């Protein structure tokens, strides 16, 4: 076991300016961290062996409190705006020092880990946590160096995450008490005032989304990935909740990763060492791989038990809809390690179209692929307000604008180059509504979505007939193994055909108006992929 005897006495935080009197625990094993988390009363144990933790006020990331330090190095390269909010260099120094002082009398859990399965493109992280369960989260989600590697581990990026530490907005220049600040030059992320562990994961993702395309000509992607027996890689782009994690866990294919990958000249590699899956309404029947991954070592976040038991009730939404589990990738039986495979043969764009307009599966030509990649469409279903059933469109460039420090055109260019160079099939998959919009129709059955993806991967859609969608122009297969033919045509599933046509044109118009801001950068070729009203 690589976990044993790692408490190397030589290691010290003083290089990072941290003088700590209360004890620093380096690279604890999962069992030790579970023990610490329970002793500290940070978390409780579930009857499946997983640790259950609450993340407090924040049950998701807080995008408005995520900053990037603006300095000589980043002022020209970062795409500043609502997503990449500039933070003052000196204020960062001040806050950093304040955090270091804060840590002096705290019990600290420190972990050394990699981000990036390909050793040519990885970051060597030192992660400093005040909470043991968060350090376990990092064990699960980042890559675990071997005992030998830890002996010579040279860190080149630091995360300091102290949920109990709150900023003073007046003095520190933050919006609120909580913050996640990335300093790309000093190579530090500071997180305070929030215990949502996903801030660490997505913070490092943002860093790699800067470094890899900017400095290494590697396309970084918000996608999941798996690989077939013949070595055929598939990647699945999509915004939150569209099915990246769910659909990449496929018993017949090796899992590469569920969320963050890089595409080099000849490989696709995972940035992470684990998965972070939604568990709302999780069932063993529908998602056996994820269900079985929740065992000792895994963490479940913001879930609740059935009364008088330690059995997790996955239907319980009383804390949040965004209940999650974090587990190391080897909890999935057919995960491949190292998480690296060849360049993709099939690319899937996942969208949860709550209007029920987008076909459940369609094939895109190169123009449409570029157009949909840049658009990054999905829909959010209505909130809890009574009587409000109308969903809302969400467009997020490259299916991940929230994590992209560079202008979207940088990622789009790399994506276009790679598509040009390699023979890739690009598919658009609607995991959202069928038979009408949200409130009228129902969510596409998971087993149908899986069957469509399997058919595409096995080449079973290569020789069927296709017809073009009236508005989006994408090619819809007229048959697909294990899927009733009527499911394939969204218009056929609506009882009111005129209503469908109207909705399709409305959605097309939203695509076009969203694309206005990219028109200046887009070629004629890309614009040829736009909907036709
Ligand atoms: P994130 O980026 O937040 O991790 P994600 O893209 O990984 O999001 P998933 O965790 O895979 O999203 O969530 C998809 C959710 O939708 C799961 O809870 C899954 O059970 C549910 N679902 C229902 N129907 C389908 C379908 N047809 N295809 C995919 N997922 C479906
Ligand atoms: Mn996911």
UniProtKB/TrEMBL annotation:
Domain of life assignment: Bacteria
Pfam families documented for this protein: PEPCK_ATP (PF01293)
Binding residues annotated for Mn(2+), in chain numbering: 202, 222, 259
Pathway(s) annotated for this protein in UniProt: Carbohydrate biosynthesis; gluconeogenesis
Reaction(s) the record says it catalyses: oxaloacetate + ATP = phosphoenolpyruvate + ADP + CO2
EC code: 4.1.1.49
SUPFAM superfamilies associated with the record: PEP carboxykinase N-terminal domain, PEP carboxykinase-like
Keywords: ATP-binding, Cytoplasm, Decarboxylase, Gluconeogenesis, Kinase, Lyase, Manganese, Metal-binding, Nucleotide-binding, Pyruvate, Transferase
Enzyme class name: lyase
Binding sites annotated in the UniProt record for substrate: 61, 196, 202, 324
One annotated GO molecular function: metal ion binding
Binding of ATP, residues: 202, 222, 238-246, 287, 324, 449
A GO biological process held by the record: gluconeogenesis
Protein name: Phosphoenolpyruvate carboxykinase (ATP)
Source organism (scientific name): Belliella baltica (strain DSM 15883 / CIP 108006 / LMG 21964 / BA134)
Organism ancestry: Bacteria, Pseudomonadati, Bacteroidota, Cytophagia, Cytophagales
Gene name linked to the record: pckA
